[in-house]
Predict the 3D structure of the following.
Amino acid sequence: MTASVSTRPTHYDIVVIGGGPVGLAAACAGARRGHSVLVLEQYEILHEHGSSGGAERQWRLQYAQEDLARLTVEALPLWAELEQAGGRRLVHRTGSLWFGDTATSTNEGQVNAAVAVLDRLGLPYEWLAAKDIEERYRFARLPGHYEGFFQPDGGMVDVRATLWLLYEQARAAGARVRDREPVRAIEPDDNGVTVRTEHGHYRADHVIVAAGAFSAPLLRPLGIDFDVELYEMATAYFRCVDPDFDYPTWFAFQRPTEEDTNLFYGFGRLPWATGDLVRVAPDFEVDVFDDAYGASRTPAPRHVKRTADWVAEHMPALDPNPLHPGTCLIALPKDHERQFYFGHAPDSVPGARRLVVHGAGWGFKYIPLLGRACVELALDGRTGYDLSRFAF
Ligand code: BEZ
């Protein structure tokens, strides 16, 4: 139950802005270290308006950038800890298949560069020709020069179970979570930070901003250049017509067309549920916009049709009729090399060391690590994880 304004405490060691996965993971980490923590979430917990909407996310060790691959490996024990605490599996190792034009560079990586990193890190994979991919994984009519690899440790993350578990763990550790309380202003000074909301204000020693796509308007008045581009990724489910077959998670790297980036990716059946639906989505970075509150939450019909056509052409084990079309709000830094924003606010902001900002990027794999790193940066001034290249 929500406490009334007059009885709630107004000072916290840490105020976390954003009750999504990173915010909740940070709340867990902070409260477990014995600190008073308040999480402020503008919508309801587990809402679908941000970048954590949907049931599943890809889990993969392969990256074109070695530091990101290392970071994923470093996140593994933290996921295991969370799974043990919650008594359920969150990362399901169904394998990860990357294939296509091996030299095509995309925001999601490049097959050849990712293989070089797997080699350098001594991580296993099997190299596959187009005909292997067709025979083993039931893709069809792939261009003959397509190649790729299967990495057995990849798979998918159970998004809703992760969020729910983080929420429960944060509260069990003593964090307060106030949902439907939008933040209106963040005012850091040398002695602390004032956080103004629709319902009042709080003082905090440290503030962690983890509001994803919604962070930019909160940071702009502080002069923080959170330069992200937003787009709504369409998504749809397709019925698998062969009850004895399942897909690993996969990503098809293809040369862009004149209209779009021509990238598609998908999953197998949800290992934590029953049913014969699998998700396939286009990764089209088009129709970019700036304001997260302006999202339409309506999938572009052309994107759904492109996906259904790709499924009809290349995935004979699926009925190409798209079901449950939806969107997911994606926020990526405009500078694609940087991948994320993570760090203290820039020194030009008064009280910068009291403000930790995380946001943007494909971050679900790193959630427990990012939550812990936010708290380490806030309380200790540094984190042991190598996140320096994401700094402001
Ligand atoms: C990823 O694994 O980072 C990813 C997967 C599908 C679409 C975009 C990104």
Remarks:
- The domain at 96-152+228-333 is CATH 3.30.9.10 (D-Amino Acid Oxidase; Chain A, domain 2).
- The helical segments are 21-32, 66-86, 111-121, 130-137, 159-172, 216-219, 301-314, 367-380.
- The first helix runs from residue 21 to 32.
- DSSP finds eight helices and 19 strands in the chain.
